[in-house]
Amino acid sequence: MKAAVLAEKQRIIVEERSKPVAGSGEVVVAVSHCGICGSDVHGYMRGMPIKPGTVMGHECTGTVSQVGEGVGVWSIGDRVAVKPMADCGACHYCRQGQPSLCSQAVAEGIGLVPGRDGAFASHVRICRPGGMLFRLPDEVSFEEAVFTESLATSMHGVRLSGFRAGDCAVVIGAGTIGLGVIQLLRIGGARRIIVVEPSTKKRELALKMKADMVLDPMAETSETRRRVYDSTCGLGADYVFECAGAPEALQMGLDLAGKGGQVMVIGVSAKEVNIKPLMLCVREVSLKGVFGYYDEFPMVIDFIQQGRIDTASMLSDVIPLEEIEDRGFRRLAGNPDLVKIAVVPGNESQI
What is the DSSP string of 193-253? Predict the structure, then answer.
């Protein structure tokens, strides 16, 4: 099969590899589409923590092509969306309904850590199909469903926040996660949604998805806080969703949250950030991290099936696997107006 392999930092090669084989309790999925995630781009640009020789890719859809011994739920030909985290289902966190905190979730998943090959390939092996595969209705295309993983993260952040109808929210960063948060906040009855995003194209998308106000932090560096507070009767945001993954975005989020507000950190960044604990205390602002998802996958699929979430506007391009580096990774790294690029192996039968 064809697979896109990280050869070294900022270099991907497409090579022939043996198709994975489903072991006992496993299945193999023939990949239809796999989205390029921001974390994939970071790994490509920095080279860490992704180990050379690894096949990345974790936002995938496809068709079950092999079924291992002891798998009774799935059959060859079933259309699925793949949850890349392989939570064990038995540990303390899984039993408490917090599977993304399971110590095995990332380590045994696909395309997330060194040595665990992902879905930038024609086929991918799924070690725990009972918790990693979700059936797709006939009305939901693979192209639409490729957004399931990222939208599940958006939904998880909104649900974890405790957001309620009538609340005011700021969303920092209008990439796939941020645009998903905007749509879910609107569905949930937000009173006001303010989006902070430097890309003109993404600000336009945010307005299309019913944001009430969009701000360019580059052009209004000293005005962003004033405009947010003026727009919220001087109170600031009830909730800030930091979806950019940049240190300055977190600092801004803490500044835009009103008294008693909450900052949800969805954007992933390994860089250190300086904050002033005094300001958290005297304003009683909460800071909460968001990682992955719990049980949001089937909810997102239902929303897509019902037409409640616009995925088409977020899809910047669909490209063949052979062009994944030039038309995928390099473009996403250099063009902030792009949202999601989906990769299609497309070089052999789906089964």
Answer: EEEE-S-HHHHHHHHHTT-SEEE-TTT-TTTHHHHHHHHTTTS-EEEEEE-S--HHHHHHH
Tokens of 9: 């930092």
Distance CA 209, CA 214 (A): 11
Q: What angle do CA 137, 143, 147 make, to 5 degrees?
A: 85
Render each residue's pLDDT in the chain as its tens digit; 351 residues: 999 999 999 999 999 999 999 999 999 999 999 999 998 998 899 876 778 888 999 999 999 999 999 998 999 999 999 999 999 999 999 999 999 999 999 989 998 777 789 999 999 999 999 999 999 999 999 999 999 999 999 999 999 999 999 999 999 999 999 999 999 999 999 999 999 999 999 999 999 999 999 999 988 767 999 999 999 999 999 999 999 988 889 989 999 999 999 999 998 776 777 888 888 899 999 999 999 999 999 999 999 999 999 999 999 999 999 999 999 999 999 999 999 999 999 744 444
Q: Is 141 helix (H, G, I), strand (E, B) or coil?
A: coil
Instruction: Look up residue 288 and give its two tokens.
Output: 């909460």
pTM across the whole model: 0.95
Residue pointed to by tokens 């496809």: 62
| Residue 115 to residues 12, 45, 106, 110, Cα–Cα distance (Å) | 15, 18, 12, 9
Beta bridge partners of 24: none
Structure tokens at 91: 């540990």
Domains of the chain listed by start with CATH number: 2-147+311-344 (3.90.180.10), 154-289 (3.40.50.720)
Nearest to 257 by CA among 235, 227, 282, 290: 235
Cβ atoms < 10 Å from Cβ of 56 = 28
